[in-house]
Amino acid sequence: MKFSTKSRYGLRALFDMAYHSGNLPTQIKDISRRQDISPRYLEQIFQDLKKAGLIKSRRGPQGGYFLAKKPEEITVKQVLLAAEGELALVSCTREDAPEKDKCDFDSRCVTQKVWAEATRKLTEYFDSVTLRDLCDQGKELGLEKELDHRFMYYI
Length: 155
Prior knowledge:
The protein is mostly helical. It contains six helices and two strands, in the order H-H-H-E-E-H-H-H. The protein has a two-stranded antiparallel sheet with strand order 1-2. Strand 1 and strand 2 form a beta hairpin. It is elongated, with a radius of gyration of 19 Å. The N and C termini lie far apart (54 Å).
């Protein structure tokens, strides 16, 4: 199983926002620089995250993107669903699978239960990990928080 860059980068970007900015607006260029992700690609990813209600945006000189919820309320599962649309390991285990994806062995497939259970356990795990958990891991790793230069004043 392999998640797309959209999922991986989306999760990294939201972690970055939670870790460095909390609930303050963050500009794409800052996330892009810290996470080494193309700003254009981040804009595309953020459209999906915005539709999913995970982030909001504010225009203007003090604007940018910010989390729509507290970090402890945003799970990895929510981010992955926003980016991927689904988390099924194989399409034949989806209850709403289109006819073309249904298995010819549907009622007598032994492996189908393996995939369904693996998907359930993985989904359960992703639902148990929040952005707050990732921020705590970042602190444990000693990741340095970057102060937002927009709020720095020199005398």
